[in-house]
């Protein structure tokens, strides 16, 4: 049989035409749109004419060449196949080399004949030679002309052609009378019929099914509700699954996803490989496929086919009065169950789920669609690897088709799947536009809550829709126009004030991409007042929302007409965003720099004039005396203050552009290096233009030398990795400004000389910079920066949403670490709490050891409550000691400028993954993670105070942390205490001191975090209630003399009593209820008390002086120990105490002398608590 036709049942020519027509019909089942040409017993001239004509008409499209070589000689080893001469009197060989010439590339070749492997091997040999020759010719043309040959169509390598051969070079096709002669053709074009016939031949239990019944299976191939359509559906799913699990990913994409005809042929080729191997034939292909004939999924096919064959006699029996109802296969439901098992148990393995292609096929079924979508969403939510696996299978066409479904129950899971996919791959923008798929998401955003159905969280659902539309509009003008036309602007505007921060964030980002480089959309947004809503979001409690609002402002600037309305809109926008200069979040400040850079890009001459006026302003101050300049440098702690000084002396025009320029200067010295570097990149461009317009030569200058690091100091890497690079440093620019306007370059040495030269340098802190030149400045015209907030925000959808977070997942590493920390705390408290009541009656003189401090830390001794770490600092470096090992483990730079000092150290979140907070007298707070390891990270940093009082030189910034509220109290720099919300990264309260001196110490009650004790430089102590209005905030005021309050501590958990120690040596116990001192203790310490501390839980006090005297007492003033830290065989000179602190939990005391840290403990024994 040929094409299921018996050639002997018809006349010779009629049989030939019938076979040819059947072959065409079989191919049309797989690709009905293709044009087919039959060439029945052609001559060599007809073959050449047909092939050349096909290539000419197909142009660069793929051609299918099917060769049926039955009845002619076998192909020769040289790759020759046979046709007739013009008179049909003899066979004429045609080389495959000639066919390559006539048909060109790309092309698919099918060789259905004996010894077909000869043609395939010869083709590859000739193709390799031709491709190499063409490569040499192209290289020759490039060498002589510099460009490829003109008017020559691009060459498509012949190696990209696809070939399928029926057998190896030395094999003959099966000659069994039970099989068709064109067995390969039957497998490739009618796989269901030949597969069923193969099962009948090899399964002796099937006796009531004849070969004629196989060709009469009811239904159509494309109707999945019929037996034939269901078998074809199952066959497609199984062959896709086999190919995806066995083939390399790139080969699977090429053969099974790029072309429908190629995919159909190779799915059917897998069946041919399985069947023909049973008859000692080994089909060949190019490219070569791995072996698939023994894959376990073939057993699933046999089961499904056997279930259909068992019903076939009844379905075809004409004698039955009532038609038999076909029982559909449970193949897909069983595979979904297997996939569900893998989701529950199999994710611990490295092997992907082999049922994934089947799950995608199930999406086409209304019966199993919802279940398949739910399982698929769980799979995609696992990790990015799962998303890439789904993309490799080809998920986009399936979920794109589902967007046409009106079923409301599919909306939540379908939107979730699209958000997951687009977070990783955004390449389907054109497909969404072509099929109007984007309108599905606009429709959901436009729905009211009543029409959203039973969705648990409509806002999160809308946020995912906003994200999908953001990806669709990003850098895709056609998408922007389509979304604007279909009302996306109004749809998102209604949700800009939604209660869900995720929705607010993505509404802003969606707006930024919708109107980016689209003026019509911008003015439409202005007409409905969206910019006013964005201004309100700049005060949002969520950091990401504030950054997203700035991103939207950044794309709103630019492309605006220079009309009065456009200029007014730009100025209003700049006035709104300048509020974010003092934002505590580096992310927000970074977005602010991007927004301001857009204004500088659009108005370069305005900023050049502003910068020049400011330079002339500073030049006018150079007439002051040297002493005046020194005093000015002493009082100015940052670039921000130098600007304000110049502003107060000779004001320039108060325009919005002047304010923006000064904001950029402030941001260029930001404590977060990434923000500073970005701002420097903008400032440098304007400075270059100023220098270029000055008419003076730009001469090379040397860059100020960076401070050297300690030998053991590791580099500190910011959490947010920088992505932009800058070409020069502002230090160079300022140097040239100084030379140009006559300023003293000495003033540039202080206070901030560590300005990063480049983004690379910002990652290499503590390394000296190389000598630079002003010649590195350039004016390439690109001033505006690009935001990377969009890419950062997309990570949210790449992370698991439904799974339990790792820290809450029992058995995970983070969960176990947290549990260990809780147990460690419980054990420590269990061991020490019983000792507290009697600690005040037992001597405190037990020496535990000492730690050498060869670099001399002089400040801020602080001990971790539960980890064995002690931290101290000098002016600019922080040292971490291991109290168990009695040695220093790490020393790193805080990167505060020369002349400033670290004045406060705190442990934040000390009961879990703790952080180290450092405050310096320049008004900047820095927070570190992994402070005990080499890979220390700067978590965040911000300027708590922009104006530093000259009186703060002796105290610096004082910080106090409340764990329960997540609040940081900062003071000591000005006449206010600021309260910062750590989670929101904003200042939530300003507490006016109502005092003429600055704060020297602070303590907040650890129960409610509302009662704040503040000790002052003049001996006063005030208690503030942060809950009441400002005028009523001072609830108590006491005077402990006229000297500085060293420390103020609540008496245990009692909020109405506290203890203070002052510089005059007085220790006083205060009771708020009695509004006075209830106990006064004179430590009688020689040399005056310089340091004082109180144990948080035990009745222990300690004080130290400038001499060697350190005394430990109880609350009644009774002496428990005089610590002699410098006694030994050879007494050394007495050294002053530079710091002392109690361990927050243990009954330990640490003393810092600068060169050594001593450790002492109470002499109490656990058995003494029973006395």
Architecture overview:
The chain is an alpha+beta fold and 1171 residues long. The chain contains 37 helices and 35 strands. The strands form nine sheets. It has a five-stranded mixed beta sheet, with no helix packed on it. Strands 1-4-5-6 form a four-stranded mixed beta sheet, with helices on both faces. Helix 29 packs across helix 33. The termini are far apart.
Layout: helices, strands, pairs:
Blueprint: H1 12-28, H2 44-58, E1 63-68, E2 80-84, E3 91-95, H3 96-103, E4 107-112, H4 117-145, E5 162-165, H5 183-189, H6 191-202, H7 211-214, H8 227-246, H9 249-256, H10 260-277, E6 284-286, H11 297-316, H12 331-345, H13 356-362, H14 369-380, H15 384-393, H16 396-402, H17 411-422, H18 429-434, H19 438-446, H20 458-473, H21 477-485, H22 488-493, H23 501-514, H24 519-527, H25 530-537, H26 543-556, H27 564-577, H28 586-602, H29 604-619, H30 626-635, H31 639-649, H32 656-667, H33 673-693, E7 717-718, H34 730-741, H35 759-763, H36 789-798, H37 813-832, E8 846-852, E9 859-863, E10 869-873, E11 877-882, E12 887-893, E13 902-908, E14 915-920, E15 924-929, E16 937-943, E17 958-962, E18 967-971, E19 976-981, E20 986-992, E21 999-1004, E22 1011-1016, E23 1020-1025, E24 1034-1039, E25 1045-1051, E26 1054-1062, E27 1067-1071, E28 1076-1081, E29 1089-1094, E30 1100-1105, E31 1110-1114, E32 1119-1122, E33 1139-1142, E34 1148-1152, E35 1156-1161
Parallel strand pairs: 1-4, 4-5, 7-16
Antiparallel strand pairs: 2-3, 5-6, 8-35, 9-10, 10-11, 11-12, 13-14, 14-15, 15-16, 17-18, 18-19, 19-20, 21-22, 22-23, 23-24, 25-26, 26-27, 27-28, 29-30, 30-31, 31-32, 33-34, 34-35
